[in-house]
Fold this protein.
Amino acid sequence: YDKVFRVYKVAKREPENEGNTETYALYFCSEEMVLSEQYKVAKSYKGKDISSNVVDILKNYLKVDNSKISAIEQTYGTYDFIVPYLKPFDAINWMSTYARPQPPNVGADMLFFETSDGFCFRSIQSMLESEPYATYKYQPKNLDFYNKSFGEGVISVLDYEIMKSFASLESTN
């Protein structure tokens, strides 16, 4: 899988190995994320379905190529929106709260996200009907990782960390 990313933050450098080496984390984001932080959408959408508004913002404000648009699910109903000077991704997320999937899926659970295949705008219902990509299991480290009783194809999460620190992408605003 090849993709171009922008480095938007470098974490604090930590010395290791008696000061002979140092480690740090690089934080990446897509080019579209950087553009979304720099531009604002101030536009009215009259009598259109929300999925076409999402495609319009992706193509006209973020200049996303058709090959990077993976799965845009059609939404039910037409709406009139005035986007009040929001960042493109914020505008899409705001409109997605009003979006309803086409029947037979019912509900108001449309999500906008990016995968390795491209940008997606899908309902939770249709995603639940898809085949899972992977199954993850959090387990103690002292258990045998290769124990088949946990099932074939299980990916073990041995450790995770939630971090919140200063980010230049957030401060761009």
